[in-house]
Design brief:
Length: 362
């Protein structure tokens, strides 16, 4: 049965963009995957897809009683840095992940998962450390408030914990060594202070976009990728149109910088008994170029942290990329994607199919 791997997968080194069996759900390093959802069609299951992909990959590298350990020899594990920006905290995330077959306590103990409570940094920031102490996190004029800087620093520390040995091992691979999941950017922006130290109104959307730009630059330097979730109910992509300037500013900025846009929304006709919503995968700049430009010698000379264009060739089994596919989450896994734990296998009880068929299509 078709699943999220059918929609979200990337080629591995040395193969063509259409080689299905040799593709991976792990995003290429330096990539940015934007996920948008609505209140009636939450996209937490897409974030779980990437968490499970990391878990499944690491599971193949763990030493076994026989020769299983040989398979993972010479390869580095992936690490998920989960940035929780809502008040639900890690307890809710643990429950959802457990239904997906991932035990976060074990992942944390093995060093393959780290939860950062961004909501605490934003909402519990000390009054003494006001926005007057804002620091630049890039070498340019981009500046942000202290909570954003502290969140950035925490992520930077987590990325640098990977050993230099592992860095050398992944030089010939495209997959990310670290996955930074921002859950969710809308909540982070809503919690930011819109008044600076001088009492002037600030552009929160622009500040958040600049912070995310610095974060993606950090990811590129550390063989990582970024998966960002934001709510699109108040943007121009929703049926109600743009009603929040901050959200619209964020979406406009992200669509110019992201590599892949995974758009999850409710059915125009409302919720159906056998369908939870629709998904559209939009390949943006680099994925589109990967399908139109032939490989050149300059690709081999790129910085090692930036994979060649072929790594961003997203394959979607839709009749056209502009056409959404429908999805359904099984009744026994409403809050998560359940299922097996092998790379490229069923990502769980999230089924997808094209409009007008009512069934899978592979």
């Amino acid at each position: 049965m078709p699943n999220l791997d059918s929609l979200l997968s990337f080629p591995t080194p040395g193969v063509g963009s259409s080689s299905g069996p040799t593709r991976t759900p792990i995003p290429p390093r330096s990539s940015h995957v934007l996920v948008t959802d609505t209140t009636d069609a939450p996209a937490l299951f897409v974030l779980m897809h990437f968490l499970r992909a990391s878990h499944a990959y690491n599971k193949t590298l763990r030493p076994g009683p026989d020769t299983a350990s040989i398979k993972g020899k010479g390869k580095a594990r992936t690490k998920v840095v989960w940035l929780g920006c809502t008040s639900e905290g890690i307890v809710h995330l643990k429950n959802v992940a457990r239904k997906s077959g991932v035990h976060l306590d074990e992942e944390t103990a093995q060093g393959t998962f780290k939860f950062i409570d961004a909501a605490a940094e934003v909402y519990e920031a000390s009054g003494i450390e006001s926005s007057a102490a804002a620091l630049s996190i890039q070498g340019d004029a981009s500046r942000t408030h202290t909570p954003f800087k502290r969140i950035y620093d925490q992520i930077a520390r987590e990325l640098t914990t990977t050993s230099h040995h592992d860095t050398q091992l992944l030089e010939s691979e495209w997959g990310s060594r670290n996955l930074i999941i921002v859950d969710d950017l809308t909540a982070l922006a809503w919690g930011a202070d819109s008044i600076d130290a001088q009492g002037h109104v600030t552009n929160v959307g622009q500040q958040t976009s600049q912070w995310l730009g610095a974060l993606t630059a950090l990811a590129t330097r550390n063989d990582a990728s970024v998966v960002t979730l934001m709510h699109a109910d108040a943007t121009s992509s929703s049926k109600n149109g743009a009603s929040d300037p901050v959200d619209e500013c964020l979406l406009s900025s992200l669509l110019q910088t992201a590599d892949v846009w995974v758009e999850v929304k409710e059915l125009a006709s409302g919720r159906a008994r056998d369908c939870d919503g629709e998904i559209t995968v939009h390949p943006l700049v680099r994925p589109s170029l990967a399908h139109t430009l032939a490989p050149s010698a300059s690709h081999a000379q790129q910085h090692r942290n930036v994979p060649p264009l072929q790594a961003f060739a997203v394959e979607t089994p839709c009749p056209t990329r502009a056409k959404a596919v429908l999805y359904r989450i099984a009744p026994d896994g409403q809050s998560a994607a359940l299922g097996g734990a092998t790379i490229g296998s069923n990502t769980g009880r999230v089924q997808v199919w094209p409009r007008g068929t009512g069934r899978g299509f592979l």
